[in-house]
Specification:
The complex is a heterodimer of chains A (440) and B (456).
Chain A (H helix, E strand, L loop, with lengths): L1 H8 L4 E17 L2 E19 L2 E7 L4 H17 L24 H4 L2 H16 L4 E19 L4 E19 L2 E2 L3 E7 L6 H16 L7 E7 L1 H11 L6 H6 L19 E3 L22 E5 L2 E2 L6 H7 L7 E3 L6 E3 L3 E4 L6 H6 L3 E5 L2 E2 L10 E13 L2 E13 H4 L3 E11 L4 E16 L1
Helix pairs in contact in A: 4-5
Chain B lengths: L1 H14 L4 E17 L2 E19 L2 E7 L5 H16 L15 E4 L12 H16 L4 E19 L4 E19 L2 E11 L5 H6 L2 H16 L7 E7 L1 H13 L4 H4 L19 E3 L21 E5 L2 E2 L6 H7 L7 E2 L8 E2 L3 E4 L6 H5 L4 E13 L4 E13 L2 E6 L2 E6 H4 L3 E4 L4 E8 L3 E8 L2 E9 L1
Parallel strand pairs in B: 4-6, 8-15, 14-21
Antiparallel strand pairs in B: 1-2, 1-5, 2-3, 5-6, 6-7, 8-22, 9-10, 9-14, 10-11, 12-13, 15-16, 16-17, 16-18, 18-22, 19-22, 20-21
Classes of the chains: A alpha+beta (440), B alpha+beta (456).
Amino acid sequence: MEELIRFGEKFFDEFEIAIYKNRDASVNIELNEVSSSMLRERAVTVIRGVKSKKLGVSIVDTGDKEKIKEAIERAYKMAKLNKPDEKWTSLPEPGKYREPRKVDKELKEVSPDYFVDLAREGISLALEEQGIVVAGGAGGVEWGESLIMNSHGVNVSQEGGGAFFYLELVGMREGRVTPGIFDFDAKLSLNLNVEEVVRKALQKVKWAFNVKKSKTEEARVILEPWAISSLLSYALFPAFSGEKLVKGTTPLANKVNESISNELLTIYDDPLHELSINPVIADDEGVPTRKNVLVEKGVFNGFIWDNYWGKLQGVESTGNAKRSLATGGISIGFHNVIIEKGKKSLEDLVGEIDHGYLVDGFQGAHSSNPDNGNFAVVANPAFLIKDGEVKGSTVFMMSGNIYELLPSLYEVSKEQRVLPFEGSMIVPAMAFENVRIAGK
Amino acid sequence: MEDRLENVLNWALEKFKAEYIEIRYENVNKNTLELKDGTFTTFAGKGQMGVAIRVLADGAWGFASTNRLEQLENAIESAYKLARATAKAKKEKIQLAEVKAHQDIVKSKMKVKPREVPIEEKVERLAELEGLLKADKSIKSTWLRYEDASGEKILLTNEGTKIKWDLNYVWQYVWATGKEGEKLAAARDEVGAVEHGWELFKEREPNEEVAKRVLRKVHAQLQGVVPKRGEFPIVAGPIVVGIIAHEALGHLAEADLTINSPFKDLIGREVAPEHVTMSERIVEGGFGNDKYDDEGVPVKDIHIIENGTLKQIMLNREYAHKWGMEPNGHARAENYTYPPIIRMRNTIFEPRDWKFEEMIEDIKFGYYVVDFRGGQAQLNSAFQVGVQEGYMIENGEITKPIRDTSISGIAIEALKKISAVGKDFGLEMGRCGKGQSAFVSSGGPHMRFDGGIIIG
């Protein structure tokens, strides 16, 4: 690979090779049955070179040396056609990486057969319950190897994998069709808990059979991990991007060291957190990853950066560069966001509510406006809580602004879930008071 | 390449006892440009090449994909073994509806293919569009993405299907953020085509038009007021009508999803007023247009709802057999790394005879929703659509713009509340995600809903 760096140096002032090799083995579940098995193997190489401040990128579906050389030449052709970026400084310099987590090599070779059995187990457990259809699901492993090198001496290779299993259940009873109810497990080993996935999903389907009306009112609302993570990912997290600070499009500009919530809220990004299922030691530019505190006890702590926007602002990259394999472009993103847990169990949080709601998922979180924090989402699946108990399912709209919602956080659950969302996320349930909802 | 693929197929037919073997080869060159506030942050040439293999053996599917052509035989063997392993867990054997095997070459209808356009021209056009947007003082930030592809796709099956496509597309996405005082607002715009080439940007979507549209959406939001929440008469423009057709109803008519949706028991029944017809069909300029699907089945026009009655659903060969129907060309794969699944192409409501003015003239208070940002639906047809451009209707007239809101409802209930269907027609291009991404379009005429949709 050193040879490729030398080859690239003939064309560019500085340049980078990123090679990603992936192997995914999985099974699909459709309508109460395992429907297909898949084995997908792919190698993708991304070349990024800069000549006289002109950027050229090329992407090729191979890890083969000769083909990579052709890709380097192609990137050079692209660079010649590009316009100089006067703001360009340089690619990253080598850094010191943390100790990588131990990798479970078993994940590299596991056959989809393993997941055929797992899926069968999950399906038959779910079907023990009357009126249940296993509408869909999947299980599998993803194994990835990457190598990031640049002409300044960055040279970091990583490997690792994870396993996942999810089911979507639909309840059909007396002409009533419940919304699709998902549950899942994701781990860095094959130690998946299928029984727990089925148990949790079944519980929610049972609630969903009993439909309750929701009112237009102000109420206490508990957002479960999947719901809160989707809302925050679209309405809040983009505002932490340093690029948006430079461009003046984040509502968090001038808010460093100011409170955006209350002391119950602490958010940080750390791929090597003990529960992380995305334990990367380097980002996609080869910059060491680290723990970046975003919000500490309600106070906004600062932005995250990649190499380009960081250098433009005169700060270091925080190791948050993410590469799109579709476009080769680098953008600022998270590896493993952790929302700090609280002290009470979810059960206690529900138990303390005389009248309120529990939200499992939101529809339309992705239509939120990250530039001002406005959102208008449908809580579905959602459940009505009465006298400390879940009484049935309901649907309502919740619209507002994330910066107005966050200060009304009054409790965080002590249980956290690991979500395979944008890398990975570790999220508790979060309870808010005086939330305006529009019932149906 | 065709010879190599045919040889591998023949080798596999001798070696394995499979009901069906499908080989799909793809070799596509792409140009991807991203222009963020004056800088091309992506300036990429991409070579995407690989093979997808699907084997049906003992009534179960196995799928393998690889970009190592020298290992094609191994990939077929993997797919075969996977199918056999899956079959052990399967009670109901998968069978495929019979189809005629086609041998064809699908030529591109583009006048100017993207590969014939020098990259300098692509760069210039994006820079010009950015300039037009930034000439407006309230525009704070812009993000322009452009992608095109030119290449070939070959489909071979053991049944004798042999189709070769000249594969091309162009696509553009704009995200603009505007600011006035402390108010921030963002708007999205997307155009694309598979049958129009570079001429799309010259003739149908020139920069001036795109810029005008984006600026209108940003300003509507900057000046917008928060709407009242509740159920009011709603007039929806073609783009919003399209997203309801696609998200809330279209997905329910994808046979693999129909089976778990309320549509299952409604086929042949009246689900909407007589003046409502919703189709999945080839449309002029449609982003989902094609001659064959990725199983080699000719693409047919279908009416999901015909004069108010739920009639047809989208099928691949597997589900066509299950339902005892004819396959209609809706099996699509994003690229060689995916197996084909049932997807929409162009989902639209058919126009009727109302004028827009007639639709709003007796509305004392209601909303006119023009464009969306993101939409999502559940299998029970509960939908949510973020509104990025909308206005109040007061005493029969369009008045103030509204901001950052969404509409929601249960589509199969909202259908019954359609009180007027316009005579105009509009189409929106987009990408649909269902585990894989697919180019689709959706649209229709203006339509009025008297209830069934909640705003706010």
